Amino acid sequence: MTYPFKIERLASLQAAARRIADLQGRAAILGGGLELLDFARSGADQTPEILIPIRQIAPMSYIETRSGEIRIGAGTSIAEIADSTGIRRVAWPLTESANAVGSSQIRSQSTLAGNLLQRPRCWYFRNGISCFKNGGNTCPAATGDNRYHAIFGGGPTYSVFQSDPGLALCALQATLVIVSPDGERTMPVTDLYVDPKQDASREHVLKPGEIIREIRITPLTDRYVGTFMKIRERSGFDFATVSIALIYNNFHGRFKDIRVYLGGVAPRPYVPEKALNQIQYKKLGRGEIPPAADLAAEGAAPLEHNAYKIPMVKRLFREAFEVTYEKLSWRPD
Amino acid sequence: MADHTEVTVEGRKVRIRSSESEPLPPYAPSVSVGHPVPRVDAVDKVTGRAVFSTDVRLPNMAHVRFVRSTRVHARVKSIDTAALSSIAGFLALVDPLEMVGKSLKDFLGRELPILTDEPRYFGEELLAVCAETESAARQAVRAIRVEYEDMPFTVDPEECVKAGRFVGGGWSRGKPGRPAVYERGDVAKGFASSDQIFERTYRTAWNVHASLEPHAAVASFENDRWTVWESTQGVFSVRDDLAALLAVPSRRIRVIGTYMGGGFGGKSGAGKYTFLAAYLSKKLARPVRAVQDRSEEFFSPYGRPPSIQKLKVGVRKDGRIMAIEQMGVHATGAYEFGAEWGSAENMLTEMYACDHVRTQSYAALTNTPPSCAMRAPGHAQGAFALEQMIDEIAHALSIDPVEIRLKNLPSRDPESGKTFAGPAGVHGMAECLKKGAELFAWRKKTSETKNDPATPVKRGIGVAAASWSAGGGPPASATLRLFSDGTAELAVGAADIGTGTRTVLAQIAAEETGLRVDDIRVINADTDQTSYTLPSYGSLTLASAGPAVRRASHACRRQILALAEDVLQAPAKSLTLADGKVTRPGSKKKPAESVAIAEFVSLSPSHEIFGRGDREGNPDVAIKAYAAQFAAVSVNVETGVVAIDEWIAVNESGRVVNPRTFESQQIGGVTMGLGMALTEDRVFDGGTGRPLNPNFADYKLPTIQVQPSNFIAVAVDRPTDANVIGAKGLGEPPIIPTAPALANAIHSATGVRIDTLPLSPKGILDALNRAKS
Ligand SMILES: Cc1cc2nc3c(=O)[nH]c(=O)nc-3n(C[C@H](O)[C@H](O)[C@H](O)COP(=O)(O)OP(=O)(O)OC[C@H]3O[C@@H](n4cnc5c(N)ncnc54)[C@H](O)[C@@H]3O)c2cc1C
Ligand code: SF4
User: Fold this and answer.
1) How many A from CA of A155 to the centre of ligand 2?
2) pLDDT at B1
3) Is residue B468 classed as helix, strand or coil in its secondary structure?
4) ipTM value greater than 0.85
5) What DSSP letter does each residue of A54-67 carry, written as one string?
6) Quick one: which of A4, A106, A8, A110 has its CA closest to A47?
7) Which side of chain B, N or C, has fewer Cβ within a 10 Å radius?
8) In what order do the strands lie in the sheet with B488-492?
């Protein structure tokens, strides 16, 4: 490990992509640097020698509306997102999620792309204890102190998804614009995250040299309701114990187009399928919510110390539906 | 006051007479003491002018860092330092051989080596490196390769006790493998005469002091003397520790700790880093800085050890406590060092009247950092058990939780049998409970707090109380110098650990002399410029240094008055000293007349008025400070999230010298208590033995958002007659009742006792779940 880093300034994203691809793990994009600095200090993860500050390549910190989409530069800070009235108007779950990130210092410093690509907070991994995520071949959390770990989709890793804005972007069906050495492509944000069963060592599919340039969101029309909610141990400045991003609309008097994702409970944003199927297309009615909420933790496989997340998941699912239900422009009860 | 003390001098027992203290007139302060005077150093602190030890930068200063063990228990097999030579700026390496025989000592003389090649906990100091810059020192640390031979370890205190690896906790050094036992009366008899017996096991979590300023020292060696800037609660104890470690006379060491960023019990003497800074500053002949980083604050020998307390209490139907039996285990670390700090038994032995008490304290020799005093050491843990148990008993017997406490208040100190310091009459804890109950509308809330079964959010209320020995006492002294321009210098040894000590001492001097607080410069915590005092710990600072300051100021007052009698042609007792002047009141014949104090100082034979004061001895009584706290909470039983709707903290700590600093102290104590209660949990992994959350993201201190929205802190202002200023300590009492008050409120909301800290959503949901099944 080298520390401090070398900073390189490159003329274009394309050039940066090529440089990083050439150097493989030895170079990386520098967003807000919070993750990079953390790991450089703790030595718990490999840190690159060369950093390429994304905000110095091109204007990367912007929020604009074009072609009927909201386009957010990858280097936009979480604080700027939280403050954006445009986002609040047509993508408010993202606003709510941005406000729930860390503290105001953390929000000012972190970039949206950096946040999406943050590594798990798992305390074995973050303390450099050998595990699947740092070259090892065990998961000490599986049998250790797993109070903060996954209850769904775990194994071989039990880390949990902790990006609050990431969860909201999944529910908003956001698209990422990726620059790579050989061009540009788009990709749904829901495809960004790796199935841990395929590869437990990493969380996202981007290869070295693939850079997130922009995040695009289709604005929600006023038929939609939605929210982002988060339970944390410490009120303020804490990662989610369980979080939820929920969006749906009223389609001829029915729950429709429901997108619901849970955070803090699985290695990736988790879709509670059973509960979702239970309520999708049902006639609007408050009474539909509790039976669905009861199914929200269906399939949970808690570890020794984290069964407490099960009632939380059910409660949060129910509360998110109840809160949004009240906001529907038409409701039968 | 006892008129003599028995001591041993050169093997001979002798009785020494207590020194006579001049009787002072009764204290009736009016001009400064009792007023919300702003802190004398507020502007310096907010403008950055105040220099803390971590701010000290000296020319040519070098930097120390430690190589710490990456194993929990091991023998160092080999150390490869070959790469050091290629590190630019590397200056020196210190290994355990160079430090043979050097160790820190706890209160009972148990030792902790400065460096070791057989680490017994993760993060223990193996080597020290010194380099031109902090970053070069870090590089040097990383360049060293250490090979270990692992040895078995355990971080679980109960496992240790089972395996016989423990010593007695508490204040005497019992035999190894035996718990420390306290006993009065006969618990078997007490339980036999009880109508009902209650038993429960409580667990408190591992905490860390988390001072804003980490442990830090900067040492410079010049003209054969050391000057050390240390972030400490006690400059004199640091000096004495260093003198012993360096084997040099005290006169060759100066320790300065004027500004320090929080201690909470963790900065009572020299640290390993202090010694290395001092040692290397001489060896390298240049100043050396040693500052711990945040993660090191979690690895080094500091923090509140966790406890497991089995408590059994017998009561009569009317609520009278008949017997208390406790078995307490705490993790003290593998060196026995600091074993005195984790025992929770004092709370049980001193709080309530009870003739039959037996406690056993086991200090488990876990492979964890040695434990340390931390704000209300033992009491904060003990209260979590006892004050919940009292609540449980009250509910079981259908007695009001406030009433049951009043019923069991002791009329004499249960431990020593001494009477309590006056004023006679009402018990301080009774006053706290009654005042709090009234402000909180306890009775009304008790009858009105009902919960709708349909909603998951349940409301509840709770109360808890505390007592703490807070009388202060000698040794403490102070000097006051008045200059001919009407300004003055007050010199006291005490550290101001953020509580406002400098301010309240200046107020006491101002009150006595008539000077304005603004005209008094306070010099404190500097071994060259001030006289000896104990460290600022144990809630003793104001009650120790305050009377000494009044006496020093009184000596000056007498000199001023002697001159004023002549100048103003009036008897001393008719004169008032205030606002920088001495005033003779007006009469029919003469109008009032004032002369500036500066004038009298110029007239004095030495052109300066000087006074010295020594703290008088305490009367032979028990001097306690008291607290009660009331909480109203909402608990979501499906998410385990607790919201604090209302909090009332009441403290009786004798005279309120400054209402503003008094309130700050209460708010700070409750906030720290809420951290302990809700989120703070230092986790050592059973499997790997390693700390899992040595940082502020994962070790969760309370943030401003945890503060109750409706938070009232009030004082019972009741001067004690135990010393000449009437004040007692307020350092620890505000943290003691917080966790049990919250736990009791959560029980009232949910019907479930949560016997384990922290009261996190997980803790609450798990307990609710256990209660269901
Ligand atoms: C104390 C603390 C509390 C926090 N609390 C929360 C919370 O409550 N909720 C939450 O969601 N998050 C939280 N975070 C996470 C925080 O928001 C992330 O650490 C931060 O978002 C990382 O962003 P960054 O811009 O600093 O990333 P960086 O450290 O700069 O980058 C992170 C990684 O992403 C890569 N990268 C950055 N930008 C790009 C890009 N455009 N294309 C490709 N790769 C890129 C970097 O190379 C690096 O590998 C917290 C963090 C801390 C330290
Ligand atoms: S949960 Fe994942 S990150 Fe944590 S120890 Fe297991 S493999 Fe590593």
Assistant:
1) 9
2) 52
3) strand
4) yes
5) GGGTS----EEEET
6) A4
7) C
8) B520-524, B488-492, B477-482, B609-614
Residue A218 lies in a domain: no
How many whole angstroms from its chain centre is CA B594? 44
Tell whether ligand 1 has an atom less than 6 A from the beta carbon of residue A159.
Answer: no
- CA dist., res. A307 & res. B244, Å (int): 54
Cβ-Cβ pairs closer than 8 A, A with B, add up to 93
The residue range of the domain holding A282 is 224-326
| pLDDT of amino acid A263 | 98
**Cβ(B725)–Cβ(B546) below 8 Å:** yes
Total domain count, chain A:
1
Question: Residue B773's pLDDT is what?
Answer: 85
- Mean pLDDT within A70-98: 98
How far A263 CA sits from the closest chain B CA (Å)? 15
The predicted pLDDT at position A1 comes to: 38
A236 has a chain B CB within 8 A of its CB: yes
Extract the tokens encoding B470: 């807070």
Contacts of B238 (CB under 8 A, 6+ apart): B228, B230, B232, B255, B257, B269, B270, B274
Q: How far is B264 from chain A (nearest CA, A)?
A: 22
Residue A305, in any domain of the structure: yes
Q: Please name every residue paired with A322 in a beta bridge, in sequence order, or none if there are none.
A: none
CB contact under 8 A, B139 and A3: yes
Q: One-letter amino acid identity for B438?
A: E
Does residue A193 lie within any of the structural domains? no
Residue-range domains of chain B with CATH: 4-30+472-614 (3.30.365.10), 61-152+215-291 (3.90.1170.50), 398-471+622-772 (3.30.365.10)
Angle at B417 between CA B414 and CA B418, to 5 degrees: 115
Which secondary structure element, helix H or strand E, spans residue B288, and what is its range? strand B288-291
Taking the centre of ligand 1 as the mean of its atom positions, its distance from the CA of residue A75, in whole angstroms, is 11
Please tell me the predicted confidence (pLDDT) of residue B15: 87
Residues from chain A contacting residue B707 (CB–CB below 8 Å): none
Q: What is residue B342's predicted lDDT score, i.e. its pLDDT?
A: 83
- CB distance from B704 to chain A under 8 Å? yes
Task: Calculate mean pLDDT across residues B680-690.
Answer: 96
pLDDT in tens, B625-650: 999 999 999 999 999 999 999 999 99
Q: Does B135 touch chain A (CB under 8 A)?
A: yes
* Mean pLDDT rounded to a whole number for chain B: 96
Q: Which helix (H) or strand (E) holds A186?
A: strand A183-188
Specify if A322 maps to a domain. Answer: yes
3-state SS, residue B743 = helix
From the number of C-beta atoms within 10 Å of its C-beta (0-12, 13-18, 19+), residue B545 rates as buried
Confidence at residue B374, expressed as pLDDT on a 0 to 100 scale: 96
pLDDT digits (tens, 9 = 90+) for A113-140: 999 999 999 999 999 999 999 999 999 9
**Does any CB of chain B come closer than 8 Å to the CB of residue A103?**
yes
Is a pLDDT exceeding 50 seen at residue A2?
A: no
Q: Is A72 in the pocket of ligand 1 (CB under 6 A)?
A: no
For B183-193, write each residue's pLDDT tens digit: 999 999 999 99
Which listed ligand is nearest to A34 at the C-alpha?
A: 1
Rounded to the nearest angstrom, the minimum Cα separation between B641 and chain A is 7
Structure tokens at A108: 């000012």
Q: What would the mean pLDDT of A260-267 be, rounded to a whole number?
A: 98
- Residue (of B579, B552, B581, B550) closest to B564 by Cα position: B581
Cβ neighbors of B302 (< 8 A, separation 6 or more) are B208, B209, B215, B266, B369, B372, B374
Round to whole Å and give the CA distance between A80 and B211: 32
The alpha carbons of chain A give a radius of gyration, in whole angstroms, of: 20
Q: Which of B259, B755, B228 is nearest to B528 (CA)?
A: B228
Residues 6 or more apart whose CB falls under 8 angstroms from that of B738 comprise: B464, B629, B669, B670, B672, B673, B674, B676, B677
Write the CB contacts of B566 (distance below 8 Å, at least 6 apart in sequence).
none
